[in-house]
Amino acid sequence: MDLFEQTAKELKNTFDSRFYDRAKFIPSAKETVEIFCAFKDFLYQYPLVCNETACAAPLSALAPRLTAQIKNSLCLLCKETGDCAACEVSARQITHDFIAALPTIQRLLVSDVNAAYEGDPAAVSPVEPLLCYPGVTAVTFQRMAHFLYARGVRLIPRIVTEYAHSITGIDIHPGAQIGPGFFIDHGTGVVIGETCVIGANVKLYQGVTLGAKSFPLDANGNPVKGVKRHPNIEDNVIIYAEATVLGDVTIGKNSVIGANKWVTHDVPPNSKIN
Fold it and tell me: pTM for the whole thing?
């Protein structure tokens, strides 16, 4: 065995044994990113480039590709052994539901674009934030990922939002629940945690963190999972640059949190934290 074969063998053995117990079900990160970039472009450009008949074809082509990746994600984490037929059925249904939900996702996207245009005097038309603003891009990927996350798919949504993180500098967990008219201005360094609940017409600036405080450990010293640990941001809240809001606290509607503030307690509605 030559050097290259030996190296390849050792890499494979180390990778499989240390990280995966069912390696054949690993979703393809590259394929997943390609699929969701195609969906994003479809959501953005569909009204301009094709009619209903012509645009049914690309959706039809994307569906089996998405089903395959969802199936792998489900199979990797399920408790069955081998190629789980139930995962195939679930993947097909989830893909069907995702395709059917695209108009709803697009309507949310339109509300985000309008919020960006109306909230930024530098924008010359709604097309500018749609095509140029990293906040709109990050939220578009997150809204698609959240749909799958809410239906029990885990790895695919994380791949999607971490890809968005890598190209925008905005880190939004797919579990976060985000209402309409959401605008992240500038955006670099924004972090939004898994159990955040964000209402309608909320605006964040760069560097805002909606995060968790130190989390509790169980008797064995492992983190306690599945608990609410991130903030609730009610309607019409503005949070300025570099502010940090931690824990399961509520920022009441119509409130303003000033720049560089550290908030770990509830804020009543209509408040200003200067």
Answer: 0.91
